[in-house]
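Project outcomes to date are best conveyed with an example. Our students and postdoctoral researchers have been running inverse folding experiments weekly, and each run begins with a structure described purely in tokens. The record below, which covers 461 residues, was selected by the lab manager from last quarter's runs and is presented without edits.
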């Protein structure tokens, strides 16, 4: 095996990693890509020297929104400290999963550092997610971060990230996704997510609802963890008022409300209102628990939250890929997340809200074969033009099969297929040329979004 780094050797390393230990992202959940349980990860962590003990951690789990919440918190803390951020999935480069965030922006590991890690440590028998989690923890310690915000992969209780003891455990939302592995009810899934609660560590849940609240209360009581529900708490930004001078220097309003922060954020999407509120409550709890080295009531923190996407490199969350015509992509892929996005698209169609008059809607859509199409189909906006495509991975549902199934479930939809995501985007742009102020939405799968981003990147060159 070659031990000296070069680009060819690095490419061969990645090919070996993906072929020997396929990721859930590409192979789905099987015995090779998904290894439930913490024994292998704990043993790997010992070999790494428990690097997560060199910085304070924040653990974020949930069905939807956890990547956004983790990124907002990282941006806020980075206004005054050096922060590691671990999220998944990646869109273009697997190194996107681990970043160091500062007030000046983000960096990810160099290819040389990735190479060094795999030359130094034995990763045989580990899943892709276990390896990348170990790489992130190791690299964060090497980079001397003060904090690391860690997003759980699947579930929580048996997730590879659950070897840490954080300063706060956060659960963003509970919805029906990955039911074969996590349970067929929201209560069962909540029990798996609550597995990240640790003895004495504050636990924050985004919202309190009858189906899951008792699960969280019992889980918190078992480990004596203080439990908070964010939707029942007024954060300091509302209770005391925070200067909005960084954005409104001549404003007569001396404080920034959550709505004002939301309107200024570069991380957009229908779900961000709840995510932002959860983040502000989490920061309040941290401020009371730790001196985090950042003024949580200062303009620099608010500005950092508003610049979350820029500072952390988070992509695919209601991200605008083109202005004329307006093209937005989003990685929402399960019914709870798509319900919110599709409702936003209906508002655009009907001309409600701040988006102006009604607009023609074109949707580029693809899905993985294991997703709940029967649960998604009723949510899809009528009156839109759908271009169906399959991303270039084995898990994808072929476009013609997707059309056949949707034709049974929603015969009212106007659909056509394209041989690839790129050709579907080109077709959408072609339709848009003959429309007045059209809106193009690209989604259904992370892989659809990835290929759309690559398409627009290539157009810019």
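After processing, the design step wrote out the following sequence:
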């Amino acid at each position: 095996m070659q031990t000296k780094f070069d680009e060819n050797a690095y490419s061969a390393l990645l090919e070996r990693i993906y072929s020997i230990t396929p990721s859930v992202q590409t192979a789905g959940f099987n015995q090779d890509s998904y290894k439930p349980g913490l024994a292998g990860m704990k043993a790997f962590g010992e070999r790494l020297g428990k690097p997560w003990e060199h910085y304070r951690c924040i653990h974020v789990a949930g069905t939807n929104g956890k990547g956004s919440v983790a990124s907002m918190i990282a941006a806020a803390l980075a206004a005054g400290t050096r922060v590691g951020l671990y999220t998944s999935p990646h869109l273009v480069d697997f190194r996107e999963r681990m970043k160091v965030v500062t007030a000046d922006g983000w960096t990810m590991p160099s290819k040389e550092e990735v190479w060094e890690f795999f030359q130094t440590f034995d990763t045989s028998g580990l899943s892709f997610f276990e390896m990348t989690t170990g790489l992130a923890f190791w690299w964060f310690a090497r980079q001397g971060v003060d904090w690391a915000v860690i997003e759980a992969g699947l579930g929580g209780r048996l997730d590879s990230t659950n070897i840490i003891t954080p300063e706060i455990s956060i659960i963003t939302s509970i919805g029906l996704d990955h039911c074969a592995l996590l349970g067929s009810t929201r209560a069962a899934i909540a029990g798996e997510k609550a597995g990240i609660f640790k003895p004495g560590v504050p636990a924050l849940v985004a919202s309190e609802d009858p189906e899951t609240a008792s699960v969280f209360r019992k889980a918190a009581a078992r480990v004596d963890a203080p439990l908070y529900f964010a939707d029942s708490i007024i954060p300091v930004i509302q209770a005391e008022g925070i200067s909005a001078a960084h954005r409104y220097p001549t404003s007569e309003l001396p404080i920034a409300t959550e709505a004002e922060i939301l309107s200024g954020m570069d991380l957009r999407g229908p779900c961000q209102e709840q995510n932002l509120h959860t983040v502000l409550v989490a920061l309040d709890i941290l401020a009371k628990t730790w001196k985090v080295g950042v003024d949580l009531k200062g303009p620099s923190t608010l500005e950092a939250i508003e610049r979350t996407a820029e500072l952390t490199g988070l992509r695919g969350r209601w991200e605008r890929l083109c202005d004329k015509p307006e093209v937005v992509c989003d990685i929402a892929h399960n019914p709870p997340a798509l319900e919110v996005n599709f409702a936003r698209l209906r508002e655009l169609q009907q001309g409600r809200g701040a988006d102006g008059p009604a607009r023609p809607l074109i949707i580029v859509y693809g899905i993985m074969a294991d997703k709940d199409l029967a649960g998604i189909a009723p949510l899809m906006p009528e009156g839109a033009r759908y271009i169906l495509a399959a991303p270039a991975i084995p898990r994808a549902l072929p476009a013609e099969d997707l059309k056949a199934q949707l034709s049974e479930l929603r015969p009212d939809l106007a659909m056509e297929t394209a041989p690839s995501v790129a050709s579907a985007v080109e077709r959408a742009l072609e339709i848009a040329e003959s429309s007045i102020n059209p809106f193009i939405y690209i989604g259904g799968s992370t892989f659809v979004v990835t290929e759309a981003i690559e398409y627009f990147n290539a157009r810019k060159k």
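The chain has two domains: 7-312, 319-460. Residues 319-460 form a domain with the Protein-Tyrosine Phosphatase; Chain A fold (CATH 3.90.190.20). The training component of this project remains on track.
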